[in-house]
């Protein structure tokens, strides 16, 4: 059975850059970025990231200040990841660029992508990122969402044989090692799962981190994550999918948990677990059992999260379907609902409003390149 969401529908999207950069902090403008090829989805997503990874303002920082000396600009505080409105969006904006380099080597964006990544991934910048984490009260900085994306970025680089990407991977290693060590220290202390539909959700982060641990061969980190996932979720039943989405979700608590558990359970066990966890999944192939979220104001940074929930639901359902036995009667319904969510989510990825454009391209790229299920 072919398990695809038919994402060629996205080829008609008309995307452009995030807008002109602030010259005080950035010399990258839309004029510096090559034009997209007609109907080349990857080019348009790349333009979104290229236009914002070094765009310092507007910016929302999550910053613990200990003294007056901590009153610095985003680029001074975290010089590798200061663009795209916030640290975590900057991180997955950089991931998007690496992903495009690997999946579309003929992209006309390639020279601009390489220049942008060379600019960010320097020893001095990463040393400054580490120095920032050393500040009092910053031990949990961007945990777990931003730190999970940082490890996903490292995993993307790690699986490449390209010497340039290998060099960037080594540049990031000190920050990677700090994040892994602090996460391993945190996991035994985390008594309960974090079941939100936003940044602090544990299931989504654990999934990205497990993929990283397996790619890099970190067996101890993988075991800690797998054990915690099973501890938290093996006995979960009847997830209240009807209560989703909340008004500001960009991750589905139920579907992200299902997408996590496919990574840590044998197929037969997972198929049985899914039946008790999400008994709502139909067996008649219908796609209307789960309705895409509605965004009524794409200029509202919180409400536009629902465009993200449509994209992340789509990849989660595709991931769940990929883990079920061939012929499982739930697969057609999962893929039908995934396709509906992908169509809605991808149509919303636009440069018109920075509230969405600074991050939705990453979610779209994760979906269209099938990153979570071994897409190449």
From TrEMBL:
Origin: domain of life: Bacteria
Keywords assigned: Signal
Endpoints of the signal sequence: 1-24
Pfam families listed in its UniProt record: DUF2891
PROSITE patterns: PROKAR_LIPOPROTEIN (PS51257)
Keyword Signal carried by entry: yes
Keyword Signal tagged: yes
InterPro entries according to UniProt: DUF2891 (IPR021365)
Protein name per UniProt: DUF2891 domain-containing protein
